[in-house]
Amino acid sequence: MIGVGLIGYGYWGSNLLRNLINNRAFEVVAVADPSERRRVELRRHHIAARSLETAEAVIALPEIDAVVIATPVATHYEIARLALEEGKHVLVEKPMCASSDEAQHLVQLAKARKRVLMVDHTFLFTCAVQQIHTIVDHGDLGRITYVDAMRINLGPFQRDVNVLWDLGPHDLSIVDYILGEEPLQIEASGYCHANSCQADMAYLTLHYPSQIVVHLNLGWISPVKVRRFAVGGSAKTLVWDDLSSQEKLKIYTAGPDPQSQEDRNVLLAEFRSGDILLPLVSTREALAGVVEHFAKVIAGKEQSIMDGRSGMRIVQILEAAQRALDESLAHVRRVSVNRMRAVGS
Amino acid sequence: MIGVGLIGYGYWGSNLLRNLINNRAFEVVAVADPSERRRVELRRHHIAARSLETAEAVIALPEIDAVVIATPVATHYEIARLALEEGKHVLVEKPMCASSDEAQHLVQLAKARKRVLMVDHTFLFTCAVQQIHTIVDHGDLGRITYVDAMRINLGPFQRDVNVLWDLGPHDLSIVDYILGEEPLQIEASGYCHANSCQADMAYLTLHYPSQIVVHLNLGWISPVKVRRFAVGGSAKTLVWDDLSSQEKLKIYTAGPDPQSQEDRNVLLAEFRSGDILLPLVSTREALAGVVEHFAKVIAGKEQSIMDGRSGMRIVQILEAAQRALDESLAHVRRVSVNRMRAVGS
Amino acid sequence: MIGVGLIGYGYWGSNLLRNLINNRAFEVVAVADPSERRRVELRRHHIAARSLETAEAVIALPEIDAVVIATPVATHYEIARLALEEGKHVLVEKPMCASSDEAQHLVQLAKARKRVLMVDHTFLFTCAVQQIHTIVDHGDLGRITYVDAMRINLGPFQRDVNVLWDLGPHDLSIVDYILGEEPLQIEASGYCHANSCQADMAYLTLHYPSQIVVHLNLGWISPVKVRRFAVGGSAKTLVWDDLSSQEKLKIYTAGPDPQSQEDRNVLLAEFRSGDILLPLVSTREALAGVVEHFAKVIAGKEQSIMDGRSGMRIVQILEAAQRALDESLAHVRRVSVNRMRAVGS
Amino acid sequence: MIGVGLIGYGYWGSNLLRNLINNRAFEVVAVADPSERRRVELRRHHIAARSLETAEAVIALPEIDAVVIATPVATHYEIARLALEEGKHVLVEKPMCASSDEAQHLVQLAKARKRVLMVDHTFLFTCAVQQIHTIVDHGDLGRITYVDAMRINLGPFQRDVNVLWDLGPHDLSIVDYILGEEPLQIEASGYCHANSCQADMAYLTLHYPSQIVVHLNLGWISPVKVRRFAVGGSAKTLVWDDLSSQEKLKIYTAGPDPQSQEDRNVLLAEFRSGDILLPLVSTREALAGVVEHFAKVIAGKEQSIMDGRSGMRIVQILEAAQRALDESLAHVRRVSVNRMRAVGS
Q1: How far is it, in rounded angstroms, from Cα C2 to Cα C23?
Q2: Which of B162, B147, B177 is nearest to B218 (CA)?
Q3: Is the CB of B243 less than 8 angstroms away from the CB of C245?
Q4: What is the pTM of this model?
Q5: What residue of D is the nearest CA neighbor of A48?
Q6: Which of A104, B294, C238, D326 has its CA 20 to 30 A from that of B48?
Q7: Number of domains observed in the structure of chain D
Q8: Which residues of B touch D272 (CB under 8 A)?
Q9: B269 CB within 8 Å of a chain D CB
Q10: B223 and B136 co-located in one domain
């Protein structure tokens, strides 16, 4: 059994703990959280694990082989570095780090110490994403032409990251997983409505070498929640609605029908040119898959689909998108100031 | 009664004809279409109107006071110019012209000849848009912060315009109508998947002086049809789904709840912070409203909400967006070529 | 060309007229309506057909080969009888007659005069019902086990018929068409909420020789409109939602999974045991199909799927259901009176 | 703290246990389950509680003040009787008992021993049902006229009860709670498709003294899951969709509009006559409410909304519905046999 320590027992940490307990490959040795209240709650539910105050105390325990880090982003690098230096395997929450320099250092360190470094891109283990990956891999959609994702809802506003760094890693890690290539060019715009220094809506457009265009619409200020992820292909188009319980995946037989082009009326009346298939999507909890995957990667039985390198790629894209977003916002500010001067003069 | 001539009896022309016949203010004198087949069909259904071959022949008729132009975009300017010069009132399909220079000339001509020049931005007369206009005007949503529109479907691919010029005028005219201001800055990207020289997907971001951000997602290559138009405000958010028959408009009581921020778990569980109201939307055909509006504007009883100036503003935005889109595509092409050279060397 | 007369130019009559004009096999000779206002409206739109006041006047015209009857139910029998006696083919609105005796007489008369007698069960020509018929016929669903239909909305309250006779013919004619057998036993209950002598909600359960159970939920007092029609089979289940524009038909791969039965948790988590297929449903107007069918049946090119016999079978079921409904209501009334007496004593 | 024992650690039992642990008023002393595998699983997650084999062993423990019974229906009576006789408070799963005689005996016993007897009609503590109860109580819907419920899905097929006894208690307990009256008359039909001796679809119609009609459509053989519960009133109608995460409750402003009656076309085009309101529904787990309620009723702080009498009323309705269903099935069988004889002769 792998002795595991959990660092951070907040909302996501408690889900991680439950899944670590459920998995027979792990023995949960200790949990660290700075909050006394949370440590009391922890003891009420799970008597077996020790509850400690600091990451250092958990990492120092000799029975610990691996740590799972569910703390604020700014602390990921330091805790993961310490754990790797002490020879522990690491599963860290997304985004992996606050900068690609940090991410790169952790990747090198893990390689040098021969330890597993994984980033919890949980969505890769949702049954829907697993199925999308298989469908795309099998070529069922034909040549992929675009991904169009919408991930909007109302808060929660994060204190440590903006909407790009909070919601972006989900879609970017899925795109990285299913496309298997890196973007050529990244465009971004957005705005800070609720708070002048932290973007709460962001639009990204990524261009890929294979001519795929990926568009993300991310937002924290929509009272209606949307989780729409479409993958367009030359033969078929797939739409994933993560909020639907019974109809998560829809595969549309697509492509403009050349015959219909002659008669505009006919095509206007038709919304699609073929059948729609809704494959059965099973409902295993994604985090159970992540935890199982972590155990198998440690045991050398699986290559990781969410290793340090993939975490680093996502952080690199986030950095580039942040630069593009900052430029767009700065440009709008200049135009706005010039306009006001012109009006004022 | 206003003697009216219809120029172009295609898909939209036949809808215009039906509504012109239904409106007692008009007498349909003549219809022009170059296709013999369509003129035969016309005579079978509507014996009263004369069927002619050319726009010139209709405009020349002395009983004609007004013309309605439903022809390809490239011909709008010439036909409208001729009609205005002959002293006829003009209702022209959207987009008004192929360039803002053309549009400006028509506006000047109509002013000089004291004739009505209107652009058929039909959506402004859908009951939903009328209601959105009223709701925004009354301040029900608070201060407007963003508009997020998605208008995607499968074709029909137009021969004379790309997706920006085909679908863009709908949302841009609605935005122009409800916001009543002009954008400071226009960003665009997109791609040409089906045809190398004509964009079939386009993403626009418009920044406004009042800090409103407008985002449009337009596409011809989605087998699933989406018509989503959200208007976010500081107090409430409105979402219009034009494909829903029973639930077209939803008004969400929104805004991040400061109290919930303390407890992250609670807010994650809540998808919205208040009630949703679905106001009753009546179902009058929009085009009937356009035709009635045209009659009243000719009679001097109403100011037009879709006059030549608004048509011109939309064409100006389309031109600016097209430039931004061309730049984005050229930049991606350069990066791609450089990458290939680097790989090849 | 078949000279045709339309009797009744109300809501449905105007749809019939448009489709008769569109069909090249027919020449619309005359339209009868007692309302002067409607006859004026008719002349404005369709100058070619004569507008008359009475059914008799239309039937008497020698150019008339066929009549289409779109008048209140109580008048169907007399008008259809007169037309058949004069040697005209007849297409009559549903329900065919107010009693099965009347229906039987018309069937005999049509046979004796060798004229076509058809009932406008329009739904049989919706593309969805045509597809359901084909799917069931091919055995794709396996052995049919049940039909469960829900047809509820808010009014319009009819003056001449209750909800059973107004909405029932739609689902009963579809069931008659796709099952091809007659019920053994008919149970019904319901209530008169808005009006003490006219049922505005009705629940029917029909048992068939092949063990199929058909259940109809019909109502006029639901502000939300529902059109749900499910056909369950031993292999698959089909659900038709007539209000959906893009997803009218869904075919579920069904059947309780024997393996899952062992582990209750697994099955509770799964909502279905297989894929869902949404076949493409075309969008031709059903009434165009009815009118074309009428022409072909008159020309001897097709056997009618909505002949007088099928109309008579529907009326027989309606009569039996009405008797069951009356018995149920009378029984409830007796129990209620007894209860009040017991309480009062 | 109330010492509590859980009897039955299956699917529902594990949910009960989690909620009992989360509630500070209870201390979970022991859990009984005959399965060794489940007792091992129990010990892995929750070390504090003793795991025993039999109900008797739990009831015999002196630290136990209350028991929660989550075992097959046939065993409810014996276990609850034993617990009450030993002076323990009882919360038993639904349906309370296999017969109304058993239920009546338990009610009398609880009264005699002055112990709390509650039935876990969990749905009464869903936030949606609590809100429906308040809305109906406040008279917001006007005079209630009908309830129309559809609860269909694919299995799981129960071994000990048919679909009526499995799914019926949910809707019947909600109806009992919000209407507060008992039915005058119960009609039922249904069928046994998968298994010749156990109904897997059932249609119930209940008539109430206040003229309310309640209709239930229950089924185990629908691959599509539906949870629809509509309450119609003279002023408004409420529809609860338990499967929707963001739009659980919709309140329609209803009632046929007398003015629209004149013009049939207008009303046909309108699907509803007023606004729709979607009140915010919170998302607390219902079972947490049940457990808290149990603690408060034991402490004498609340009157129970799910006491033994309400459990008994539900069992009485189930018995009456079962008799009606049996009669309907027998009648169909007789008609079928007669028909076959007639055909055979």
Answers
A1: 10
A2: B162
A3: yes
A4: 0.92
A5: D47
A6: B294
A7: 2
A8: 246, 280
A9: yes
A10: yes
